[in-house]
Amino acid sequence: MFKDATVAEINTIMEKAWKTFHVYRKFSLKQRAAFMRAIAAGLDNPPDELIPTVMRETNLPEARVRNEKTRTVFQLTSYADACERGEWLEARIDTANPERTPLPKPDIRKMLVPLGPVVVYGASNFPFAYSTAGGDTACALAAGCPVIVKAHPAHPETSDIVAKIILKAAAETGMPDGIFAHVHATSFEIGKALVMHPYTKAVGFTGSYTGGRALFDWANQRKEPIPVFSEMGSINPVFLLPGKLEQAAADIAKMYAGSITLGVGQFCTNPGLIIGIESAPLQEFITALGNEIRQIAPGTMLHPGIAKTYGEKKSTALAQEDVTTVAESATAPAANQGVPAIASASGKAFLNNPVLHQEVFGPYSLVIRCADEAELLKVTQHLEGQLTATLMATEQDMLGHDELVEAVKNICGRFILNSVPTGVEVCLAMHHGGPFPASTDSRFTSVGADGIKRFARPVAFQGWPDSLLPEELKNDNPLGIWRTVNNEVTKKSI
Amino acid sequence: MFKDATVAEINTIMEKAWKTFHVYRKFSLKQRAAFMRAIAAGLDNPPDELIPTVMRETNLPEARVRNEKTRTVFQLTSYADACERGEWLEARIDTANPERTPLPKPDIRKMLVPLGPVVVYGASNFPFAYSTAGGDTACALAAGCPVIVKAHPAHPETSDIVAKIILKAAAETGMPDGIFAHVHATSFEIGKALVMHPYTKAVGFTGSYTGGRALFDWANQRKEPIPVFSEMGSINPVFLLPGKLEQAAADIAKMYAGSITLGVGQFCTNPGLIIGIESAPLQEFITALGNEIRQIAPGTMLHPGIAKTYGEKKSTALAQEDVTTVAESATAPAANQGVPAIASASGKAFLNNPVLHQEVFGPYSLVIRCADEAELLKVTQHLEGQLTATLMATEQDMLGHDELVEAVKNICGRFILNSVPTGVEVCLAMHHGGPFPASTDSRFTSVGADGIKRFARPVAFQGWPDSLLPEELKNDNPLGIWRTVNNEVTKKSI
Q1: Is B319 a member of any domain?
Q2: What's the distance, Cα to Cα, between the start and end of chain A in Å?
Q3: Buried b vs exposed e over B432-469: b needs ≥16 C-beta within 10 Å?
Q4: Which residue among A82, A429, A460 sits closest to B415, beta carbon to beta carbon?
Q5: Can A403 be counted among the known catalytic residues?
Q6: CB contact under 8 A, B487 and A82
Q7: Checking DSSP bridges between strand B299-300 and strand B337-338, what pairing results, if any?
Q8: Pair B221, B296 in one domain
Q9: Of the residues A68, A84, A231, A472, which is catalytic?
Q10: Is A372 helix (H, G, I), strand (E, B) or coil?
Q11: Quick one: CA dihedral B428, B179, B117, B30, positive or negative?
Q12: How far A240 CA sits from the closest chain B CA (Å)?
């Protein structure tokens, strides 16, 4: 239905984005925020066909689609608020001291400025929140960067409708032509052309390891490498500590059956690995989890490709030596449905088999039975970087497992206690990222307003008179933002 | 005199650093700062042989060596202060709301934690400030990372003495064994082994484009890529605007003759390119600069390799079509001395010849004569990323050249008005970095306490009881640090 963009079209789009960058970067925080709020308003009152289109393209149920739309509106408005508050600018001022010896001290003031045009690759599992008007787009616009979205081929019509909402909001709020562009592409060639274009200055991606790593590698092979933030998912280990497990094995099983199968398991924070120490309570947990899973019906997955890959990856995982299938859903699946499944293996098997460390994207989780506490620690130390890690633990468990707690902290971006990893709160304290391979740069997040900083860099102004400085750095602080002046955090004027 | 480390020795060092990481990362900000201050104290009262050794190994004059030592002591103590103040932790707290519908809001709190062992490659031109106990080491220790320094082969004895000062300070302040290691290596193989080791989690480098890019490429080819901050120098363009030039051509020439030849031009912020519009005042400037340069005697360079490369690169630059030698020092050079030189070329020549964009590390600068304002803008738009850019301009010049000012801002990390780029102030508002190829990541700095953030990443704690949270995130804010609580910047307790 949608034709792939050509390389010539990409060139035209990027040249326009580059020109626009020089206009938009000078727009005030207020103007950027107004644009973002206009997109939010448009998405909040979309054309009638939007919700049915998403449902048809993604197989997601209406409630889930509407919730995600609400979340996306909240992202846009809350990042617009953060954009205006201006803490993300990291404004720093060190005033001059002409009397200093041996050399006078110059006046130096620093703030973040935008990187340039940002290419965003839409995600299959979040048609709103991590696609066209999603978190990456909102962060880039707040930073002062034009955005080029490559629509995910699984929901091109949805993406097209949202793109039109963005373009309408741009026109309404007086944005320069070229502030936003929308590209369809199913070919590898066009995906690569976007990241390799010299006017592309940063990339945002949410999706598979293969896709995210390819973008990262291309970006680093450029004559001028550019930052790529790829959020590539993970297996989100859950650690069942003995005290807690003894208290609540059945309750934990029930909670986790829900988390594992939520949205047919199609979340990057899906708990794909549950780790405990071989014991009667662990067996009780496994049995209870199996019983829960049998009762949960298969659900239709986002698209046939994802359903096919889930089936294959699950089969591969279940076929590994020493892996036992604990339970599968008792309901027979229809076409393109993902069958919930739980498997189990020993700690030794997990340590010896890298296949068991791989994400199985869908309603699947593997329970690892460690021989003892030493093996539990060893398993933890052999885990790759993760978006999240969860401890189910009493306070006593925590105090008695300091080394384990530190080892877990060292591999994850978000560390959850006594809850589930699914559900990523949109707030400033959120961190959605994590050590490689969870993301390509553990120092940045794709959820929360700190994500704006992915697309901005500092510039220091030395010896500028007040009249010529940007508003953010002027003596009387006309924008009323927080700044660090001579090492003191303050809103005061100078 | 010093033997290269072997790959087996590197393995042993990295295994020790990895073990130490798990101890040191739990050390309080106060403990880290105490260690850094002890290093500063040791460097401030060094063994008698230190200064003569540096002078012998680097050919730097005593005053310069002593100033750099003072600067390095200041870096260590001021970053220790910043470490303790804790703003760099970016502590964020979003408190729970159990009543929120449809889902309760969890408590989420975030702060930065260290990445892991950091490998620092010593710089040839800063035997103290960007070598063994230099800025990268100070930042990594503040972040909570063990440090492995590869001594620069041009000053191995200096590096060895400083390493002993660090190890003594570590023992005095109760640091774990393995917090710091010192490696000699002249071979490519060992330099690469350090960056490729799986326990290396970040790299700091100051030096040439070739070296910095090689480290960056290796790091990205790892199974688990790691962040590399390479500061690779630049040509630091200086723009002479018409109004200012008319007022002060001779004064600017005198100021720049000093900046170009300071330290025999061996600074990454050396002004290697001066750009103006063809005019009588520009000719006056060129003549005056030539006259100044003739009077400045050649100086001995850091080591024979640098002197040789300077001679070759200068010859290559001067041999380019349409490049005219304006002046060279009238004094004949001794062995390993760098001869100050000024050349000139048209804007057109610069636009057409990439050789003229390359750094000539030493006391050399090229003056570009643009035909008109349009060509000046075009030259600016064709410049690569730069550590610094400088405008010599009146307020009227600035107001009349908005497009040029924005174009300059877009390529540099530090934007200087009516001064010289040499001299990098150590303060929080400093930015020492810049778009590629000035550095490998324009979002980070290697000077100023914000450089700590190169070596740290956020972790979000979700649903943790107050008693188990790190001190930095506890309700009553026992460390008294600035935090953002429910989007409000505050030191208040909760």
Answers
A1: yes
A2: 59
A3: bbbbbbbbbbbbbbbbbbbbbbbbbbbbbbbbbeeeeb
A4: A460
A5: no
A6: yes
A7: antiparallel
A8: no
A9: A231
A10: coil
A11: negative
A12: 16
CB distance B323 to B333 below 8 Å: no
> Nearest C-alpha of chain A: how many angstroms from B429?
5
Evaluate whether residue A451 is within a structural domain.
Answer: yes
Q: Do A108 and B385 touch (CB under 8 A)?
A: no
**For B81, nearest residue in chain A (alpha carbons):** A487
H-state helical runs in A45-154: 50-58, 62-85, 135-143
Could you tell me if A370 and A398 lie in one domain?
Answer: yes
Residues A390 and A350 in one domain: yes
- Inside any domain, residue B246: yes
Choose the closest CB to A430 out of B108, B384, B484: B108
Q: Are A382 and A351 in contact (CB under 8 A)?
A: yes
Q: How far is B482 from chain A (nearest CA, A)?
A: 8
Q: Do B460 and A413 touch (CB under 8 A)?
A: yes
Amino acid letter, A130? Y
Distance from CA of B204 to the nearest CA of A (A): 15
CB contact under 8 A, B216 and A220: yes
Q: Across the interface, which of B85, B410, B436 has its CB nearest the CB of A225?
A: B436
Identify the CATH number of the domain in which residue A226 sits: 3.40.605.10
Chain A CB contacts of B258 below 8 Å: none
Enclosing domain of residue A353? 237-417
Q: What is the pLDDT of residues A384-432, one digit of tens each?
A: 999 999 999 999 999 999 999 999 999 999 999 999 999 999 999 999 9
The CATH number given to whatever domain includes residue A332 is 3.40.309.10
Give the residue carrying structure tokens 């007022």. B247
Q: What is the ipTM of this complex?
A: 0.98
Residues A39 and A19 in one domain: yes
Distance in angstroms (rounded) separating the CA atoms of residues B134 and B140:
10
Let me know whether B308 and B189 are in one domain. no
The pLDDT tens digits of the residues spanning A170-199 come to 999 999 999 999 999 998 899 999 999 999
Identify the residue whose tokens are 């409708």: A161
Model confidence at A101, pLDDT cuts 50, 70, 90, reads confident
Is the confidence at residue B101, as pLDDT, over 90? no
* A207 and A259 within one domain: no
Cα angle, residue B424 at apex, residues B420 and B425 outer, rounded to 5°: 115
CA distance B221 to B232: 20
**Which residue among A83, A145, A268, A412 is the active-site one?**
A268
A137 and A226: one domain? yes
Written as one letter, the residue type at B431 is H
Q: Domain check: are B228 and B244 in the same one?
A: no
A4 touches A190 (CB < 8 A): yes
With CB atoms and an 8 Å threshold, state whether A463 touches B85: no
pTM: 0.97
> How far is it, in rounded angstroms, from Cα B464 to Cα A390?
11
Residues 6+ apart with CB under 8 A from A293: A257, A260, A261, A326, A327, A328, A329, A340, A341, A342
Number of domains in chain B: 2
Question: DSSP secondary-structure letter at A123?
Answer: P
Catalytic sites of B, residue numbers: 231, 268
Residue A428 counted as domain residue: no
